[in-house]
C-alpha cells in the first residue's frame, strides 16, 4: 500500500508576476528586462497578460474554491523599486499588501518568489548580474520584502530557475547581446546571483527566525543514451553541470569538481574570492524547491560518430562537445511521449528526480512548478475539457506519492499554473492553468475566468489529500 500524502501537505499552484499581473507601467512600476525584450511576432506581449493586478480578488476567491493550501507567486522587483534601487514605491508595496492580505484572508499560505526573471531594467543598464553591485541591491530589495511582508509570509523562494537563466542565457537571461565571451560572463553572473541568494538567506534567518527560505532551480533527472560507459559518464557530467552546480552552491557553498573543471577547460571560470565563498557557505536553505517538466537524455560525442540532427529536448542549447572528460550531447529518448510543444512527458522521471535531490541534500522538498502547456479550446457553455492536463497531472502526482513512499520528505506540490497566463516565449496560446482566461494573443476579449475540467478534478485531489 502506498503511503498517503502527509497531513498538512501544501497542495498549491504557481504563477509569476510578469506573466500574470499585467499593469506593466501602472502605479509607479518601473520597466523590467521583460518589458524591454522583443518577442516573436504573433504572440502577445506582457503589458496586460491575465490582468491579475486588477482582478486578484476574483482570482484568489477562485483559488480558495479550488481548495489551494498555498499559492506561489512572485513580487515584481521593479514595482517596489522602479529603478532597482534608490526610491521605494509605496504604491507597489501597497499592492502586495492587499494581495497577501487577500490570500491570508482565505486561509491560503503565501509562498513568495523574490525574483522570477524580471530584473529591473535600470539595473540591467548598469550591467545587471554582471555587476557585483547588483548583489547588494538585491539584498536591499529582499530586506524590504522581509520587513514589509514577513509578518504574513512564512515561505520564501530566492530566485526562480537560476540554472535556466544561465544555461539559456541568450534567451531568458540578462546578458546584453554581443557580450564578448558570453559564457564566461554567464558563469560570473551565476556567481553573483549565488551570492545574492546566500545573502538573502542569511538576512531572512536574521530578520524572520520563524520563516523558511530556499532556492527554486529547474531540476531534471538525466538519463544516459545507452548503457555504454561513455554515455553514462556523459550523463553524469551533464547532471553535475546542469543540476548539481546550482544546488551544491546553494546548499553547501561549494563548486563541484566536474562543473569547475568544465568551466576551467572552456575558459568560463568566474572570478571568485575566498571571502565570497565564506558567504556562500554561511547562507543555508531550509528546504529545496524545484521545478520539473521533463527528463533529459544525453550521450558521449565519440569521434567519428554523427548523431542525427532531430531537435533534442532539454539539452538543445548546450553545445559543449569536444572537451575531454566533460563532453555530452543531447539525444532523444524513444521511450517517452511528448506534449503538443514537443516537450517529453516523463512522470517516472519526476519520482527519480525527487529521490535524487533528497538523497543528495537531505532537505525537505517542495515542487514549485510542474504542468502541461497545451492549446485549450473554449467550448459551448464556456467549458474546457482538458482531460490531457488531468492525465499529465494525475500521473505526476502518483509518482510523487511513490517518492514519498520511498522516504522523500516532500511537503508541497504547486503545479504551473494557477490560472492561464502568458508563456515566456509562446504567448497566451500555450496554456497551463486550472482556470481559463478568455483572451487571445491580440484580442483581449473580456478576460473572463472559467473553471476548466481540471479545476474540478484538482479540487477533488486536494479535498481528498491526494486520492485522485
Ligand atoms: C518555467 C518558468 C515559468 C514558466 C514555465 C513554463 O521555466 O519558471 O515562468 O514559463 O517554465 O514554460 P513556458 O512558458 O516556456 O511553457
What is the strand and helix layout of this fold?
Blueprint: E1 10-14, H1 17-20, H2 33-36, H3 52-66, E2 70-74, H4 77-80, H5 90-105, E3 109-115, H6 121-125, H7 133-149, E4 155-160, H8 162-167, H9 169-172, H10 182-207, E5 212-216, E6 222-224, H11 229-252, H12 257-266, H13 274-282, E7 288-291, E8 296-299, E9 329-330, E10 337-338, E11 344-345, H14 347-361, E12 365-369, H15 387-405, E13 410-413, E14 435-437, E15 449-451, H16 453-463
Parallel strand pairs: 1-2, 1-13, 2-3, 3-4, 4-5, 6-8, 7-12, 12-13
Antiparallel strand pairs: 8-9, 10-11, 14-15
Structure description:
The active site is at 369 (nucleophile). It comes from Paramixta manurensis. One of its GO terms (cellular component) is cytosol. The protein is of the alpha/beta class. It has a single domain (10-295, 335-463), classed as Alpha-Beta Barrel (TIM Barrel). It contains 16 helices and 15 strands. The protein has an eight-stranded parallel β-sheet. Helix 3 (52-66) packs parallel to helix 5 and helix 7 (133-149) runs parallel beside helix 10 (182-207). The protein is globular, with a radius of gyration of 21 Å. It binds 6-O-phosphono-beta-D-galactopyranose (BGP). 6-O-phosphono-beta-D-galactopyranose binds at residues 16, 19, 160-161, 164, 218, 291, 369, 373, 416, 423-426, 430.
Amino acid at each position: 500500500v502506498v503511503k498517503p500524502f502527509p497531513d498538512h501537505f501544501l497542495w498549491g499552484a504557481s504563477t509569476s508576476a510578469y506573466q500574470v499581473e499585467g499593469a506593466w507601467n501602472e502605479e509607479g512600476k518601473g520597466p523590467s528586462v521583460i518589458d524591454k525584450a522583443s518577442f516573436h511576432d504573433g504572440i502577445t506581449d506582457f503589458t496586460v497578460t491575465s490582468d491579475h493586478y486588477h482582478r486578484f480578488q476574483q482570482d484568489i476567491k477562485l483559488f480558495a474554491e479550488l481548495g489551494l493550501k498555498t499559492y506561489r507567486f512572485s513580487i515584481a522587483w521593479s514595482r517596489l523599486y522602479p529603478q532597482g534601487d534608490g526610491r521605494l514605491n509605496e504604491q507597489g508595496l501597497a499592492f502586495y499588501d492587499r494581495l497577501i492580505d487577500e490570500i491570508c484572508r482565505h486561509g491560503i499560505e503565501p509562498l513568495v518568489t523574490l525574483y522570477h526573471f524580471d530584473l529591473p531594467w535600470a539595473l540591467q543598464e548598469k550591467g545587471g548580474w554582471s555587476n557585483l553591485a547588483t548583489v547588494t541591491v538585491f539584498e536591499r530589495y529582499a530586506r524590504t520584502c522581509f520587513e514589509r511582508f514577513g509578518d504574513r509570509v512564512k515561505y520564501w523562494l530566492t530566485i526562480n530557475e537560476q540554472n535556466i537563466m544561465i544555461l539559456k542565457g541568450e534567451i531568458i537571461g540578462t546578458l546584453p547581446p554581443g557580450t564578448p565571451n558570453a559564457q564566461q560572463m554567464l558563469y560570473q553572473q551565476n556567481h553573483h546571483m549565488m551570492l545574492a541568494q546566500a545573502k538573502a538567506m542569511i538576512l531572512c534567518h536574521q530578520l524572520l527566525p520563524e520563516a523558511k527560505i530556499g532556492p527554486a532551480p529547474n531540476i531534471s533527472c538525466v538519463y544516459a543514451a545507452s548503457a555504454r560507459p561513455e554515455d553514462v559518464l556523459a550523463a553524469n557530467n551533464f547532471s553535475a553541470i546542469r543540476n548539481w552546480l546550482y544546488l551544491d552552491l546553494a546548499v553547501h557553498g561549494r563548486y563541484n569538481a566536474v562543473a569547475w573543471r568544465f568551466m576551467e577547460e572552456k575558459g568560463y571560470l568566474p572570478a571568485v574570492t575566498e571571502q565570497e565563498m565564506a558567504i556562500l557557505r554561511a547562507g543555508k536553505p531550509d528546504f529545496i524547491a524545484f521545478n520539473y517538466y521533463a527528463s533529459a537524455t544525453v550521450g558521449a560525442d565519440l569521434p567519428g560518430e554523427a548523431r542525427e540532427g532531430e531537435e533534442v529536448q532539454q539539452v538543445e542549447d548546450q553545445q559543449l562537445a569536444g572537451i575531454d572528460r566533460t563532453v555530452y550531447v543531447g539525444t532523444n529518448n524513444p521511450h517517452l511521449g511528448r506534449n503538443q510543444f514537443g516537450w517529453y512527458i516523463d512522470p517516472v522521471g519526476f519520482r527519480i528526480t525527487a529521490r535524487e535531490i533528497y538523497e543528495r541534500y537531505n532537505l525537505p522538498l517542495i515542487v514549485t512548478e510542474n504542468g502541461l502547456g497545451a492549446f485549450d479550446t473554449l467550448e459551448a457553455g464556456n467549458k474546457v475539457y482538458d482531460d490531457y492536463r488531468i492525465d499529465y497531472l494525475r500521473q505526476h502526482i502518483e509518482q510523487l506519492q511513490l517518492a514519498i513512499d520511498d522516504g522523500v520528505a516532500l511537503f508541497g506540490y504547486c503545479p504551473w499554473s494557477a490560472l492561464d497566463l502568458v508563456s515566456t516565449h509562446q504567448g497566451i496560446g500555450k496554456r497551463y492553468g486550472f482556470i481559463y482566461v478568455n483572451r487571445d494573443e491580440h484580442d483581449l476579449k473580456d478576460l473572463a475566468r472559467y473553471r476548466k475540467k481540471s479545476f474540478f478534478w484538482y479540487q477533488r485531489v486536494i479535498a481528498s489529500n491526494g486520492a485522485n
